[in-house]
Amino acid sequence: MENMLKIWMIISLVSCLSYSCNKQHDKLQETQQSKYTDQSSHSENQMSAWYSLKNPSAGFEILLPTEPRKKEKREITDSGLVTTTAYLSIMNKAAYSVVVTNMPLAIATGIDPDKEFEDSVEKLKKKISGKVVKQKSQNIDGNKSRIFTMIGDGPNGQTIYRVKIIRVGQNTIQLMTAHPQKMDFANDAKSFFDSFKLLKTN
User: Fold this and answer.
1) Domains assigned to the chain
2) What is the model's pLDDT at position 138?
């Protein structure tokens, strides 16, 4: 489906954002490093210094190590407007991203979430010449989700990518962390994913 390919530009967008923006973030990181300690050994007090991102329209909130950079892409399709909004936070050579794709109802109802998740895995694997080392399906408050870990190419050698994708109504929400394989950010990645919460609707 042509619209499926358009929607999953999200994967290449995140991959490019995560590392092509590194140079642009250098100066920002220098100032932010003075505010935050090494996140690889963070405590609950340090987590309280993370930036709280809320997106009421997509119905979620999450914590990021630093205030994220935001990028938005809008595309008109035959079924209506598809809006992709990406948030990127970089700290200590690790990238944390949140990407939200809002789809017209006609597209959302026409794409099976499991097929959508499979496509995302394959597209990222191809882009980074990666291999999946862990993958499982989840259910978050009645919404289908997929989480997977992949090792592949990155600007600093082999890189670990952790991804969680959730379909919530007309929104697909993708969370991703990426860091050099030689550096241990597993605790931070877990804190990032665990901080994700769907907002309650009245």
Assistant:
1) 2-198 (3.40.1000.10)
2) 92
